[in-house]
């Protein structure tokens, strides 16, 4: 075994993470789910979502048979909703093409929707003991610092160098049975020791031969991406209330919040009352502006201007893509985080303006 692999395996036995909910299993479904949820999301955030998901959909078959709306509802708040759509799509394909049995090689796993090379390799390692190299964000950080690899890790040239290192430093033929421990050790080292900010170099088993540590390059590596200023966009959310119910609209399957239920939305240069009448078939009272707030995506910042309107009359049917729901029921749907925030703040919190209006209707 290489010195590199030996050092982090030995470190992991004493210092690694051993009690995460998806550890200690060879179930490829459970491992797959955890790997997808952990993409761009912290472990502590993932755990309750993972537990609820496994309780509701304990197998590939259960997931494939579930309506997509139910899957998205459990995913609500976790973000990057394409992950949930891809999970559901992949589960259906596994039932159709593999008789419900998860494929066993990295090449086949990687062909499933939403699974890239590193995720496929991690599943193959943890579920089947395959000797495959991984290269997630944490591992990239470990390798760039340890080997002193400059260049933004997202660039193809840098990625090629990193993959070469990942392949070259796998446990050798006599120690391949340590591959799961080695892989988890790499992940844990990047997540808990070789962190993006304030890494704990004194506790790192690789410190002695780490280029970044020895050459005082910890702050410079990994090379950051040249960031452009975030684009700023604005939109209006309509909170349309009638008989203690609000209107939700199902968004298109693709794009931001694809397939989720959201408040009707329009551009800021539109007249709210005219829009409601002409596009929704709803007559409303004058709108009341609620405090604007920001919601940040990866590539842009969205300024949301909520408008509260009492519905006088409407011709909107109780069918897709619209639904009239009580706020408590709406929270059980697959809704974006800012919509959930608005509902909780203005309908479910005592002493808010909208809550008093609802109470007033109850007493009328």
Q: Which geometry do the CA atoms define?
A: elongated
Give a short account of the largest sheet.
9 strands, mixed
Weakly predicted, low-confidence segments:
356-364
Structural class: alpha+beta
Helix percent reads: 40-55%
- The helix count comes to 16
Taking all Cα atoms into account, the compactness measure Rg is: 25 Å
Strand content: 5-15%
Distance between the ends:
77 Å
Mean pLDDT: 92
* Secondary structure: number of strands: 9
Order of helices and strands: HHHHHHHHHHHHEEEEHEEEEEHHH
What does this protein look like?
This protein is an alpha+beta fold. The protein is built from 16 helices and nine strands.
Highlighted features:
14% strand; alpha+beta; 364 residues; nine-stranded mixed β-sheet; elongated
């Amino acid at each position: 075994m290489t010195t590199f692999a030996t050092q982090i395996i030995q470190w992991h036995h004493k210092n690694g993470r051993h009690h995460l909910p998806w550890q200690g299993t060879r179930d490829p479904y459970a491992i797959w789910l955890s790997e997808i949820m952990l993409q761009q999301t912290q472990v502590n955030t993932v755990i309750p979502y993972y537990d609820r998901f496994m309780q509701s959909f304990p197998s590939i078959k259960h997931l494939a048979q579930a309506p997509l709306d139910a899957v998205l509802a459990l995913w609500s708040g976790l973000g990057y909703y394409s992950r949930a759509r891809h999970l559901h799509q992949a589960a259906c394909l596994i039932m159709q093409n593999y008789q419900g049995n998860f494929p066993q090689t990295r090449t086949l796993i990687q062909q499933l929707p939403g699974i890239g090379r590193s995720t496929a390799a991690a599943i193959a390692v943890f579920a089947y003991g395959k000797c495959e190299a991984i290269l997630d964000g944490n591992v990239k950080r470990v390798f760039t610092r340890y080997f002193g690899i400059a260049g933004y890790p997202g660039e193809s040239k840098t990625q090629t160098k990193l993959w070469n290192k990942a392949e070259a430093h796998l446990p050798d033929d006599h120690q391949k049975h340590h591959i799961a421990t080695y892989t988890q050790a790499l992940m844990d080292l990047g997540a808990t020791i070789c962190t993006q900010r304030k890494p704990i170099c004194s506790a790192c088993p690789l410190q002695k031969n780490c280029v970044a540590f020895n050459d005082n390059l910890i702050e410079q590596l990994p090379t950051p991406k040249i960031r452009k200023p975030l684009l700023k966009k604005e939109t209006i959310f309509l909170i349309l209330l009638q008989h203690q119910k609000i209107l939700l609209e199902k968004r298109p399957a693709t794009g931001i919040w694809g397939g989720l239920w959201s408040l009707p939305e329009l551009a800021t240069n539109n007249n709210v009352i005219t829009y409601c009448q002409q596009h929704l078939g709803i007559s409303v009272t004058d709108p009341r502006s609620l405090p604007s707030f920001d919601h940040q995506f990866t590539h842009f910042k969205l300024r949301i201007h909520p408008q509260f309107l009492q519905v006088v009359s409407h011709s909107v049917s109780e069918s897709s893509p619209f639904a009239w729901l009580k706020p408590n029921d709406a929270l059980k749907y697959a809704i974006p985080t800012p919509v959930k925030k608005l509902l909780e703040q203005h309908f479910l919190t005592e002493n808010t303006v909208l809550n008093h209006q609802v109470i007033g209707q109850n007493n009328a």
